[in-house]
Amino acid sequence: MRGRVAGLVQASFAGAQIMGLPIGLFLANRWGWHAPFFMIVGVALLGGVAIVFVLQPITGHLAAAQGMGRKTVQHPLRTAASAVTVGLMFNVNRLVA
User: Does the reported pTM lie above 0.70?
Assistant: First the structure.
């Protein structure tokens, strides 16, 4: 199920990039440059209402995850991977800035 959800989210990003510009240009040409932003606000409000009233809270995974943070930090390979990631972030930031 996680894979399907991740795929749907990625497909949504791709669809938004492909369809967003033509729709935004159409709205801007028809009703002015404010119109695409009002459309985004409207879609976000509809999505927020749907999230509040349609989705049920999922709390079962919280009980299973108790103590997982400590186990993750104590695993040497994961700690090393995290250290390398943080080091790369700071080095790339230094090169760009």
Answer: no
Give yes or no: residues 49 and 72 share one domain. no
53-56 long-range Cβ contacts below 8 angstroms, 24+ apart: none
42 with 78, same domain: the answer is: no
- Residue 90, domain extent: 68-97
Copy the structure tokens of residue 27. 């709205």
Report in angstroms the alpha-carbon separations of 26 from 2, 34, 45, 62: 35, 12, 21, 45
**pLDDT tens, 6-21?**
898 899 899 988 999 9
Cα 41 from Cα 34, distance rounded (Å): 11
Alpha-helix runs per DSSP H in the chain: 2-31, 35-54, 60-64, 68-74, 76-96
Q: Give domain status of residue 61, yes or no.
A: no
Q: Are residues 42 and 88 in the same domain?
A: no
**How far is it, in rounded angstroms, from Cα 52 to Cα 60?**
19
